[in-house]
Write a structure and sequence with these properties.
It contains twelve helices and 21 strands. It is of the alpha+beta class. The strands form four sheets. Strands 1, 2, 8, 9, 10, 11, 19 and 20 form an eight-stranded mixed beta sheet that branches. The protein has a seven-stranded mixed beta sheet with strand order 6-5-14-15-16-13-17. The relative contact order is 0.17. The structure holds flavin-adenine dinucleotide (FAD).
């Protein structure tokens, strides 16, 4: 070794690790919500996020009553109400502005009696990055909650008692250990991949999604309600507020054929906006594009959600196309269920039931995705654009039911969401 001062940063040996009861990989809304639920019960939880801050890309906008129930249980609901916009309008199905802007049907959850849902509105709208920031702020009030950015998961090993995790940081590798590690690191989950768990299913090869956020006064001028589904074989889309009306920001998400090359995708925006934005060409010049991101859409699920003491939740465990807003809804419900179980294992004296309860988490939550979120999200997407005669017939039937029996049809749609109960985990 040289005798002069080298300023060498000594490598941390893998045995010298920092221990926490639960380590969550990924500071998306799923990971943060789970962290909040656990930290409120005094569990020592550390969230490790690969990026330097919370991801800002335009993704989820809508949080449904089933999720709001869970927010209420951890004291988060009022923060979300204060930060977002309550959708009392329901959802309107319509044709593109450039093709007549005809209202086809309207789903209104305000006609659903209390008792089916606790809330008589369709949901709360706000950007996913804003929701994540609100959850993080509330979690940071708990003394046992910790979060570190620029920590990227690289791998893990486990034995019967704990998991050892290697994270890559700006200062090299850092080692941690935990009683349980939860992979909430999104659809490209490194935690899932490191366990060799297949992500079963497929990726849509007809359209890619482009999500844009815009400021366009025309939506208010032409009386667009909070959530709109645009039905058309090519120019199908979702148009929805991303927050409070005074912010004036709308999500316009549409499909672009997969034969359009990557570097030409965003060039499709002007032509799509000409079809989707109401108003004259002159009025459309007022549209301010705030951001835009293309996405591949998947219908995939992890073959297993639990391997020993490593568990998957949120998009790390499943991924579906965004029409109908079921992706994060399902992820937040995973977090709620897993939170209940980890509290039982770590606080309520059920440590000896670890395998049994975690297996139950995996079975119930995988089933919820496979039997509800996955087929429902596929139906939601096809309803917007498919010309398949069976889909056309079922779309017509659905719109007819909404138009002739709005109350019954809306109750049916609202009750389908109640696919999760805490009691499922009391065994
Ligand atoms: C256009 C669009 C609109 C959508 N709209 C809705 C909607 O309205 N409602 C709805 O319910 N869902 C919607 N979704 C789906 C929703 O965005 C996802 O389901 C949601 O992001 C999942 O949250 P998550 O926390 O599980 O994962 P993510 O939000 O993907 O978060 C994962 C986190 O893990 C981090 N990470 C990744 N790898 C590592 C690593 N190796 N080490 C450490 N950290 C890592 C990432 O940086 C990220 O912060 C939409 C999706 C899209 C694309």
């Amino acid at each position: 070794m040289p005798s002069f001062n080298t300023h060498l940063h000594p490598a941390v040996p893998p045995t010298d690790h920092e221990h926490h009861q639960v380590i969550i990989v990924g500071a998306g809304p799923t990971g943060l919500f789970l962290g909040l639920k656990l930290a409120r019960e005094g569990i020592d939880v550390l969230v490790l996020e690969g990026e330097r801050g919370i991801m800002q890309s335009p993704r989820a906008t809508t949080y449904m009553p089933v999720v709001l129930n869970e927010f209420e249980k951890v004291g988060l609901l009022q923060d979300v109400i204060d930060g977002g916009h309550i959708n009392s309008d329901g959802v309107v199905f319509r044709t593109p502005a450039g093709k007549g802007d005809k209202v086809l049907a309207r789903m209104s959850l305000s006609v659903v009696p209390k008792g089916v849902n606790k809330f008589d509105y369709a949901g709360i709208h706000m950007g996913q990055h804003q929701l994540a920031a609100i959850i993080q702020k509330r979690a940071e009030l708990c003394p046992t909650f910790g979060i570190r950015f620029s920590h990227r998961f690289a791998g893990a090993t486990q034995d019967a008692d704990k998991v050892r995790v290697c994270m890559v940081t700006n200062r090299g590798e850092k080692w941690f250990s935990a009683d349980y590690v939860v992979g909430c690191d999104g659809a490209g989950s490194s935690v899932r991949r490191s366990l060799g768990i297949p992500f079963e299913g497929s990726t849509w090869d007809d359209f890619r999604f482009v999500a844009t956020n815009v400021k366009y006064p025309g939506f208010d001028k032409y009386n667009f309600p909070t959530a709109n589904m645009i039905v058309d074989p090519e120019d199908w889309a979702v148009v929805a507020r991303t927050g409070k009306p005074e912010e004036g920001i709308w999500r316009v998400a549409f499909g672009v054929r997969t034969d359009v090359p990557d570097d030409k995708i965003l060039e499709q925006i002007p032509a799509k906006f000409a079809e989707l934005l109401p108003g004259t060409a002159e009025e459309r010049k007022e549209c301010e594009l705030l951001n835009a991101s293309p996405y591949w859409a998947h219908q995939r699920v992890a073959a297993e959600y639990v391997v020993g003491r490593i568990i998957l939740a949120g998009d790390a465990a499943h991924s579906n196309n965004p029409i109908g807003g079921l992706g994060l809804t399902t992820g937040l419900m995973d977090a709620a269920a897993l939170g209940t179980i980890l509290i039982r294992l770590l606080v309520k004296g059920d440590a000896d039931k670890s395998d049994q309860l975690l297996r139950r988490y995996g079975d119930v939550r995988r089933k919820a995705f496979v039997e509800y979120s996955n087929p429902q999200s596929m139906e939601n997407k096809l309803r917007l654009h498919s010309e398949d005669p069976t889909v056309v017939e079922s779309r017509d039937e659905f719109f007819r039911a909404l138009n002739t029996k709005p109350k019954e049809t809306s109750i049916m749609m609202a009750s389908q969401m109640n696919e999760f109960l805490d009691e499922d985990f009391s065994a």
